[in-house]
Amino acid sequence: MITPNTDFTFIQVKSDDLRTLTWQNGTVAEVVEMTTQLPNAKESNGSSSTKREGKICKRVGRLDDLLLSAVDETLKQVFREEGVKVIYDYLENKCHLRREQIFEKPQVFSADLERLLASASLVIEKMVLKNLFSKLELEFEERQGYEFLDYIRELREKCGC
Q1: Into how many domains does the chain fold?
Q2: In sequence order, which ranges of 13-160 are alpha helices (DSSP H)?
Q3: Beta partners for 14?
């Protein structure tokens, strides 16, 4: 049994793929189902229970980690490893936005990406969003008037983070 901390991240494991977990000792395990233990949760019969959460983050992982993974994968797909390094260096050195801050500041990321890539940034953002939605096992629906930030806000509301 793996015990999550309060924000549903796993303290004792690491993983680049949400379907497998690797412990510090090198043991690899496949994730079949993720559930959360809710303190003081009672079923109708009054006993404590493990309840499957309907919220996205608690089912598949932390949204911020998934977004960073989607950004990394998309940029590598388009620009290869060397190009990704250049983009992250630009964001950090010229725009003062570290990679780890993308989830906290998606509007800044979007604006800085546009400054660097001009109209191509919209294509990259759409690819990132499609990748992210895929990771969440959701269908990406492009919406009129929606920008990168709007989609991220919506996902935050859905997962409660």
Answers
A1: 2
A2: 56-60, 63-93, 106-117, 120-135, 148-159
A3: 22
